[in-house]
Amino acid sequence: MLDLTPGLIAILVACALMCGLAKTALPGLACIPVAILAAVMPTRPSTALMLLMLLTGDLLAIWTYRKDADWKVLRGLFPPVAVGVAIGAIFLAKVSNQVMKVSIGIIILALTALTLGLIWYARRTGRDLATSMSTSLPARLFYGSLSGFTTMAANSGGPVVSLYFLASRFEVRRFMGTQAWFFFIVNLLKLPFSAGIGLIDRQMLLIALCLAPLVLGAALLGRWWIGRIDNKIFDPIVTALTIVSAVFLLL
Description:
By secondary structure, the protein is an all-alpha fold. The protein is 83% helix and 0% strand. It has helices spanning 6-24, 31-40, 43-64, 71-94, 97-125, 129-135, 137-154, 158-167, 172-196, 202-226, 231-250. It is globular. The two termini are 26 Å apart. It is a multi-pass membrane protein.
């Protein structure tokens, strides 16, 4: 059983608020509470609790952006994501917490550098990167499988998907709507895997239930804020949070 000290409760509250904001306004932010919980809790309980909190935020996110998802893009991503989730479940069951975090942190940093390099090259040469990313089978296989792997192994798929949508030049609501539905479906897919390897128990369910109002409250705040931002501000914030989240995983 997890010992709920006052310090740990305060950390759980902060993580719940960040999860809510990540779902409706700040994609990539969720990796920070992932890293924090992994540092203060055993790996399995922290992974289970994050999944339950993220699913709570997903419910409000899909309602908020119910008309904004790009289903053509989603249909292309889900097959490689399913493969990545299965590989991530095996990885999670076999490796230590530190190996898991460092591996995913390195993947995210490398992918950030690759994506920013592609964006820079496209701007310099005048290529239509948005169209080529959204229609390219190798891109969907690459980003999709990595997002499935990282989200199953450490609930850290947000940065990978964010980078794919940044390279595809999604405007803000299309970005948030597509991501909201993507992670709602992916997190539902992860649920039986997590239960099957013993990650979710009664205590984690009760803690997640207590934290649910905080997750939803922060998500409502994010929904209000996102209507007041455009891509010139949104894209750099997403990129910065992606880098910060990777660094947190490496610590």
